[in-house]
Structures are given as structure tokens and as C-alpha cells.
Specification:
The chain is mostly beta strands and 118 residues long. Helices cover 0% and strands 53% of the residues. The chain is built from no helices and eleven strands. A hairpin with a 4-residue loop joins strand 7 and strand 8. It is globular, with a radius of gyration of 14 Å.
Length: 118
């Protein structure tokens, strides 16, 4: 079955950097749009960044210019490079894989905690 395993979260000071990784298995990775979402305490899960099978990217306004999503289809892995981190970036970050029809092909990882101290 499809598995998405995130890694790379942790505690970092404001202004610092982290790189999240999401290793996928049980799927044809190159067929999927991969995304990173985040959920802070008391808030809904929201989009951080997407990268489709062709490499086109999309970012939430709050992270544009600071975060970069990339993918390595040979390693079945998607990355999120996070620079200039702010306390408001503190959240659980989730990896997502989806393709059409999304009702059948929409998968989530277990999440990784990112905490940014001021």
C-alpha cells in the first residue's frame, strides 16, 4: 500500500532553516502531485506548497520566497527547504500525494513537528 514517511522536523530558532523530506513507497511516484500542508494548534490544515508531476510549483503566500519544494523522482522523495523560519511557521507538517481521481488517490503521511522559537 501507499506509504508516505516524513522526516526532518525539529526545533529551530527564528531565522533558521530546516529541510523536510517525504519518502514515498507503494505508488508510481512520478504520476503524483506532491504537497506539503501544515496544521498549527487550533487551526485547520492548510496548503504550504505543491509540485506537480511536471515540476510546476505553487506556494502559500505566507511562505513565498522562504520555502522551496522540490522532488527527486529517482528517489521517490519530495523535499521542503524552509529558510528564514518564523515562530508562526510552527506546526505539524504533512506530506500529501494525490492524482485524479482524487477521491481514490489522495494519501497522507503521519506528520512531522516543526517548532520555531523566538
Amino acid at each position: 500500500q501507499v506509504q508516505l514517511v516524513e522526516s526532518g522536523g525539529g526545533l529551530v530558532q527564528a531565522g533558521g532553516s530546516l529541510r523536510l523530506s517525504c519518502a514515498a513507497s507503494g505508488m508510481i511516484f512520478s504520476d503524483y502531485t506532491m504537497g506539503w500542508y501544515r496544521q498549527a494548534p487550533g487551526k485547520q490544515r492548510g496548503l504550504v506548497a505543491l509540485i506537480n508531476s511536471g515540476g510546476t510549483t505553487n506556494y502559500a503566500d505566507s511562505v513565498k520566497g522562504r520555502f522551496t519544494i522540490s522532488r527527486d523522482n529517482a528517489k521517490n522523495t519530495v523535499y521542503l527547504q524552509m529558510n528564514s523560519l518564523k515562530p508562526e511557521d510552527t506546526a505539524v507538517y504533512y506530506c500529501n500525494a494525490q492524482k485524479r481521481p482524487v477521491a481514490f488517490y489522495n494519501f497522507w503521511g503521519q506528520g512531522t513537528q516543526v517548532t520555531v522559537s523566538s
